[in-house]
From TrEMBL, chain A:
Sites of N6-(pyridoxal phosphate)lysine modification: 91
InterPro entries reported for this sequence: Trp_synth_beta, Trp_synth_beta/beta-like, TrpB-like_PALP, TrpB-like_PALP_sf
Residue intervals of the Tryptophan synthase beta chain-like PALP domain: 58-385
Quaternary structure and partners: Tetramer of two alpha and two beta chains.
Function per UniProt: The beta subunit is responsible for the synthesis of L-tryptophan from indole and L-serine.
Pathway recorded for this protein: Amino-acid biosynthesis; L-tryptophan biosynthesis; L-tryptophan from chorismate: step 5/5
Name recorded for this polypeptide: Tryptophan synthase beta chain
Known EC number: 4.2.1.20
Keyword Lyase: yes
Co-factor requirement: pyridoxal 5'-phosphate
Catalysis: reaction(s): (1S,2R)-1-C-(indol-3-yl)glycerol 3-phosphate + L-serine = D-glyceraldehyde 3-phosphate + L-tryptophan + H2O
Automatic annotation (TrEMBL), chain B:
Catalytically driven reaction(s): (1S,2R)-1-C-(indol-3-yl)glycerol 3-phosphate + L-serine = D-glyceraldehyde 3-phosphate + L-tryptophan + H2O
Domain of life, per lineage: Bacteria
Record keywords, A-Z: Amino-acid biosynthesis, Aromatic amino acid biosynthesis, Lyase, Tryptophan biosynthesis
Protein EC: 4.2.1.20
HAMAP family: Trp_synth_alpha (MF_00131)
Subunit structure: Tetramer of two alpha and two beta chains.
Presence of keyword Amino-acid biosynthesis: yes
Source organism per UniProt: Asanoa siamensis
Protein name, as recorded: Tryptophan synthase alpha chain
Catalytic class of the enzyme: lyase
Membership in a protein family: Belongs to the TrpA family.
Amino acid sequence: MTDLLLPDATGHFGPFGGRFIPEALVAALDELDAAYRAAKADPAFVAEFEGMLRDYAGAPSALYEARRLSAQAGARILLKREDLLHTGAHKVRNVLGQALLTKRMGKRRVIAETGAGQHGVAAATAAAYLDLDCVVYMGELDTERQALNVARMRMLGAQVIPVATGSRTLKDALNEALRDWVASVDETHYLLGTAAGPHPFPELVRDFVGGIGREARAQSLEKLGGLPDAVAACVGGGSNAIGIFHAFVPDEGVRLYGFEAGGDGVSTGRTAASITAGSKGVLHGARTYVLQDADGQTLESHSISAGLDYPAVGPEHAWLHDSGRAIYEPVDDDEAMAAFQLLCRTEGIIPAIESAHALAGALRIIPKLAEELGREPVIVVNLSGRGDKDAHTAGRYFGILA
Amino acid sequence: MSISVAFEKARAEGRAVLVGCMPAGFPTVDGSIAAMTAMVEAGVDVIEVEIPYSDPVMDGPVIQKASDIALAGGVRTADTLRIIEAVAATGAPVVTMTYWNPIEQYGVDAFARDLAAAGGTGLITPDLIPDEAHDWLAASDAHGLDRTFLVSPSSTDARLAMTLGHCRGFVYATALMGVTGAREQTSSAAPALVSRIRAVTADLPVGVGLGVRDGAQAAEVGSFADGVIVGSALIRCMVDAPDEASGLSALRTLSAELAAGVRAVER
C-alpha cells in the first residue's frame, strides 16, 4: 500500500502538506525531522515511549463492546476507549512522544498552542512528567471561557500566555506560538497539538498517536475474529482520526469515516467543516483544506466542540479525502449532542463533545451500511476523549445548568 | 521595471536603498496611497506594499494590527493591485510583500500577470521557500518579475546557496531570529549573515529587515547592507496617530530621518 509510505521525503501527501513557513524555521524543522527519524529507528527510544504509554498513560486502551447502544442502533458498535487514558484523551500519546523527543534533542523548553485547553493541559502534563519548562499560548477569549483548564495548566507548572490578537482564539494562539518559536528555536521545541502544520509534524504526530489504530486493529482481530466494516472518528485538526485510520488504510474492506464539525450547519456558514465547506489553500505551514474567503483570508470557524473548532485540517486527511480512501461528512451541533445524550443514557459514558460527533456520524451511516452489506454492520468508533471538560457546555445545552 | 534600478542608483550615490513598508488598505485604500506617496516624497526609495493577511506569522503586533484594520475595512487583493499601480505612478519602484495563500487563491500566474501590468516589480514571500515555489518560479519568469526569498541566520550554507540562486532583484536577510517590530538594538547577527551572502554572490543586493526604527539604526544597517527595510516603525506612525493628518506628518518626519540615515554613511 503506497498510502502507508506517505508523506514523501519533503512531507507531501499528494498535493497537500509540505512546508509553507519562514526560512528561519527550516533549520529547526530539519533538525526535528532528523532527530525523529533517528529516534524511530532506535529501539531504546521506542521501548521508552511504549513503557510510558503503558505505565503512565494507561495504554492500550480498551476496545469496548457497547451492547445497549448497539441494540438501539442496529449495529455492532465497539468503542475505542481513549477517554480512559491519563488526562482523558488520546492527546497524551502525542505529548509524551514529542516531550521524549524534546529531551533527546537536548532542548529544555516546550511551547504549545491550545484552544479549549485540552492540548495545553496535556502538554503541561508531559512537561511536568519529563521535567521540561512549558509555555502555553491560549487565545484570550478561550482563557476566559476555559478558566478551569488555565488553572490546571498552572497547577502543573506551565506558564499560560493569553493571546489578544486577531480573533483571540486557537488560530491566533497558534500564530503566537509560531512567533515564539521563530525567536527561540535553539532551546525550544514546538509541541504541536495535532497532525497538521509543516513537515514533519503531520507525520510525526500521526506516528505518535498511531497506536490507537494498531491497538484497535489487533483488538478487532482478537474480539471479532476479523476486521470491522467501518472505523469512525471525529476530525478537527485530525489527530485522533489519523491515529485510528492509519493502521486500517491498507485494509480495503474497512471503510474509514471522518466526521467534521458542522456547527450550526454547513449551509449557515457557521461551521468548522474544512473539507466539506472549505477549499484548497495554505494555512499554518501546510497546503490543505481551509475555511477561507475568495481572497484566501481565513474564516472564523464555529462548533459547539472547542476541540474541533479550527478552520483547517491535517494534510493527510485532505489527501485521504481526495484519493477517496476515507469519507468525510459534517455532523451538526444538534446531531452530535443527541449522540452525546444517547451514549450517556445507554452506556453510562459521558463522551467528549468531539467524540460525540464520531458517534453521531456512525449512527447516521448504519442504515446505508446495513443495506450495502445485507447484515448488521460492525463499526469501531474512536471515543477520543471523556466529557468531564464539557459538563458546562452540555449542561447548558440540555438546560440542566443555567 | 526591476528593483535593480533603485539599487544601482543608490550604489552610484555610495549609499544604501531605503525600503519602507506599509500594508495595503491601511487605514483605507486611499489612505494607504496617501501614506505611501508621503513616504516617497520624504525620501523613501522603494515602497514595499504588504498584502494584508488574516494570519501573518512573521509579523509582530504593529503590522498585524494595521493588517486587521485594513481587512476590517474590506480591502481585497484587487484593491492592492490598484494601490500598487497608484504608487508606481509616483516613479518609485514598488515591491509587494505577501503571505502565500492570497496569491494561491488569486491564481499564481494571474496574479503575476496583473502585478506586472500594475507596474509592480516582484514579490517578497515570507512563508514561501523556494522548495515549494514551483508555480511562482514559473510565473515570475513568464512575467518578468523579481523574486525575493528570505534568508536567516539559521540557514545552512547549502540552503543559503540554493535560496540565493532563486532570488532576483534582491534578497531579504532577516537580521534577527524573530518577528517584525522595532527594537532597541539591531542584531549583531546581521553583518555576519550579509558576509555569508556576499561570499555566495557578490551581485545580488542584500536588504536587511526586522528591527530598524530610527535614523541612527538606518545608518548602521546601511553601512553593511545594500537595502535598509523599515516596516513597523513607519506603520506605528499611522497606528498611534489620533487622526490621519497627524499620522502622515509623523510618517513624513520619520521617512526623512531614515532617508538622511542611509545617506549619513559612506559605502
